[in-house]
Design goal:
Blueprint: E1 12-16, E2 22-26, E3 34-36, H1 43-54, H2 70-77, H3 81-84, H4 88-105, H5 115-123, H6 129-148, H7 175-185, H8 190-201, H9 205-208, E4 216-217, E5 220-224, E6 231-235, H10 238-244, E7 256-257, E8 262-263, H11 266-277, H12 289-302, H13 307-314, H14 322-357
Antiparallel strand pairs: 1-2, 2-3, 4-5, 5-6, 7-8
Amino acid sequence: MRRRAKNPFPGVSRIVDRHGKVRWRFRMKGRPAGYLPGSYGSAEFRAAYEAATAANSAMPAMPRAAHGTFNWLIEHYMRTPKWQKLGAISKYNLLHELDRFRKDHGTKLVKNLRAEHVEALMAKKAHQPAMANRLLKLLRRLIRFAIRKGIRPDDPTIGVERYAENPDGFHTWTDDEIAKFEAFHGVTSKPVLAMRLVLCTGAARQDVIRLGWQNVRDGRISYRRGKTGGEVDLPILDELRDVLELVPNDRLLFLTHGADHRPYKPTTFGNWFKDQCAAEGLGLYDCQSHGLRKAGATRLANAGATEFEIMSFLGHKTPAEARTYTKKANRKTLADSGMEKLARAKRERGVSNLGQKLDNGARKPLNGKGN
């Protein structure tokens, strides 16, 4: 009897959806379930599979928690349908926040938490307002679940104020910073390849690490955004084409690491790219890969792109976020237009006044004398 070949991707099964489309479902104990992108065995498929299996997204083993503690609450929350329905990336990020909180406060009783405790926990992160606000959001999520479970009757996070954050979020790269980065690393380097891929495609870090020659066809580059599922299909700009031509045709992924060209994980790529920005002698400490997405959108807005065009570039499903860029560009355009009108009006008044001064035929009153 012929032996059945071993499955090279344990946990993956073939599914045909109601539209007749073949999809590849990933299920493994302790890992978030989901569907893998790309065709079976492709570079995109393998990168997603490795991220799903290798990432520390498994539910950590926990001893039986005492009833009413945060450990107990978190353990029960992670069994709810709401948790199971979270996307893989959202679940991965939230799990790390839960782990950090559980490490310091897991054995404490939920019913003892008071508003002053919440404010004190946030105050420890006052130097990082975004992290303090994420902690507040996490506590609200847990407390509301605790109320549903009957662990406590009230929400101590009500009335606790968020910290003021930078309204623009991640720093948007400037043209000078982009030029400085390229001059430092050289246009033939991997850092510049990564920079131009993000800048010219709007790919997030989880998407850019899966881009390869399979995403290129007829002078265009396309991919499906992992976070929103939005389709991105863009012409390849000359500045991107120049660096892509340096990548061997037999390499499935544009960005790899190690001698064996292993695919990046999103966090690993993010940390590596941050190091390239903060390299000694460069010092772009505020620059990150996400800021390049914003720089790409800003370039489009300043060139007159509509919010729907920017939405397509960023892979969003609605134009709400893209509207931020068009508003800023419109304000700048309107400001330039208004100042030009003011300058023109001043020039016209200046010429008129000058004409009066040069009008030798104008009558001038005699000092101290009447007509």
